[in-house]
Amino acid sequence: LRWGCPMGAPWQPAEEKAQLLQNSEYQERMVESTFLYLTLDLPTAPLYKDEKEQLIIPQVPLFSILAKFNGSTEKEYKTYKENFLKRFQLTRLPPYLIFCIKRFTKNNFFVEKNPTIVNFPITNVDLREYLSEEVQAAHAHTTYDLIANIVHDGKPSEGSYRIHVLHHGTGKWYELQDLQVTDILPQMITLSEAYIQIWKRREEDETNQQGA
């Protein structure tokens, strides 16, 4: 994972920003680091709803929140001393990828949960565009299929977890909660409040057994 950090205040006019970038303190820095999982940020859920919107649950496409890793999308970070921007881009794709969808925000008083539903296909997710250009040629296989999906239901302090698991031999999906195991249709998986997902890279000689 590569991330660039353009220093300085992002709200400054372009001319002032250009002048500041001449100073070493404000010049962009590039850092490469390994990662265990990729954190996907959800858009802020609406604070208030009227009566008609009470039943409307916010939704966002998976590729919208994956844009964080396209090398051009900037994310602002704040500390008590300074503000800065970061851009992220993938430089390598492992056989398995873990996505952690950031649903929980902790402040000084309590933990909040974002209920936004992520719309995602469970097969054929191509991540080639999130690779840096110089390493795209080195990756023959960049398509992933979902093999596990962990869901959080309910409030942050009182909720429960379920997991959807693909049985590779049969291509069927199962839902597990405690000791209970039931069949589940693939299209039902995308309606849940996904929290952690595991994706497997598809090799050229593999056949798709998921049937979705």
From TrEMBL:
The gene is Usp39_0. Residues 1-202 form the USP domain. Its EC number is 3.4.19.12. It holds the Pfam family UCH. Keywords: Hydrolase. It comes from the Eukaryota. It catalyses: Thiol-dependent hydrolysis of ester, thioester, amide, peptide and isopeptide bonds formed by the C-terminal Gly of ubiquitin (a 76-residue protein attached to proteins as an intracellular targeting signal). PANTHER family: U4_U6.U5 TRI-SNRNP-ASSOCIATED PROTEIN 2, UBIQUITIN CARBOXYL-TERMINAL HYDROLASE. The keyword Hydrolase applies. One of its GO terms (molecular function) is cysteine-type deubiquitinase activity. Signal peptide: none annotated. One of its GO terms (biological process) is protein deubiquitination. The keyword Lyase does not apply. This is ubiquitinyl hydrolase 1.
